[in-house]
Amino acid sequence: MNSVAELQLFRKRAYGLLGNGRDVLFDLMDSVITSRKLPSFAEVSLSPRFRRQWSSLYKTLERSKPPADKLMRLYTDSLPKGNRLVLAGDHTAWPRLWSPTLKERTHEHQPAWAPGSKPITLGQGYSTIVCVPEKSGSWVLPLVHERITSFESPLEKAAHQLKRVCQGMSERPISLWDAEYGCARFIQLTAEVACDKVMRLRSNRVVYGPPPAYSGRGRPRKHGDKFKLNAPNTWWAPTQQDECVDERLGHLRLRCWDNVHFRKTATHSMQLILVERLDADGKRTHRPLWLVGTGNTVPPLDSLWQLYLRRFCVDHWYRLIKQRLHWCLPKLGTSAQTDAWSTLMPLMTWQLWLARHEVANHTLPWQKPLAQPTPGRVANGFDTLLDTLGTPAEDAKPRGKSPGWPTGKSRTPRKRFPTVKKTYSKPKSKAKQVA
């Protein structure tokens, strides 16, 4: 099956899963992919690919409920075969500072735009799990992209998504996570998930070695010596040590310590890895990279750190959907609309992935041709492929002219909702509960 037939089959299967409003949703996706710039969300209706009226955009997003689980199974069935799956997870914010009528707005983290400013915004957070299909480039294949509700934390949402994604997989995948997920809480939440994990650690973390042999008196110890990442005097001799020269990063020193654990997860053994960049004199030139791996099939030391560098493709995908696929452009008023619109982001990305070999490298006058097309370049040439692909959506049917708002009828202001501030309360100790 060639790539055009594969893309047509994928679009047909996705069309059958979308349910209500699928014709409008497909016209919407084709219009968004082929529109490089959009001043407002309503102007999507001006695209030649959109065959409806502008008001159907908001009505369809409100009434349609794209099934995220069924679409996720469609994505997993379309994953490349032959190699071990590499997953990556992260979360991002959709800023909605001036939307008091949007329910469940929360305080979310976003990168600070200026030194000294607080990295906080008001809006909705979204958690994502993607598959990294290639060893180089910026392509990812998103499997699930969902809103983090006001009663969930990013760690809980990511653990729930990882469990759903890994169910039914014949081979055990490996997942890559940022420093926020490098903690005991995430280890506890994903302990039963059939997936190996590699997480980055902050430099102020503390881990513990294996406990010494039981002395015969008192309760057996759970923890061994304390290992502070930012205190080299607490380190013991590494289990493995190696040095290598990378083409991009230069001289590297790799060290590994086996059988370490967090304080709250003493029964979950981990592998601690330190990656350092050295100059000609053997002195460290950059901040060290601390990694921790869990699972029985973690790659060896010399390839593990290279594998972790693929995690940053998630950031490329977030930039793609925010800048090129206009994810944060519409000022939608309800959570149902934002959820439906966000569910379309992975679906559009998958269509770009399947079309990458059929779309020529469309470059702007100031851009250089690329040997491997990026998602943005494929989106620029996707319009030329749509004439060959066609669309599974049916033509628009005339419904008459709406009478509009009745004269003299008063309009009720929309209800405003307070901003939800999430808090974390430590569980009470058993001694206090008994007292």
How would you describe what is shown here?
InterPro entries: IS701-like_DDE_dom (IPR038721). The protein has twelve helices and twelve strands. With 435 residues, the chain is α+β, with helices and mostly antiparallel strands. It has a domain at 1-78 and 329-396. Strands 1, 2, 3, 4, 5, 6, 9, 10, 11 and 12 form a ten-stranded mixed β-sheet that branches. A two-stranded antiparallel sheet has the order 7-8. β5 (174-177), α6 and β6 (196-200) form a beta-alpha-beta unit. α1 crosses α2. The chain is globular. The chain starts with a helix and ends with a helix.
Which key phrases capture this entry?
435 residues; alpha+beta; 29% helix; two-stranded antiparallel ribbon; 10-stranded mixed sheet
Q: End-to-end distance, in Å?
A: 70 Å
What is the averaged pLDDT score? 92
* Rg measurement, Å: 25 Å
- As a percent range, the share of helical residues equals 25-40%
Give the number of helices: 12
Low-confidence stretches: none
Main beta-sheet annotation: 10 strands, mixed
Order of helices and strands: HHHHEEEEHEHEEEEEEEHHHHHH
Structural class: alpha+beta
Organism: Adonisia turfae CCMR0082
InterPro entries: IS701-like_DDE_dom
Region (Disordered): 389-435
Protein name: Transposase IS701-like DDE domain-containing protein
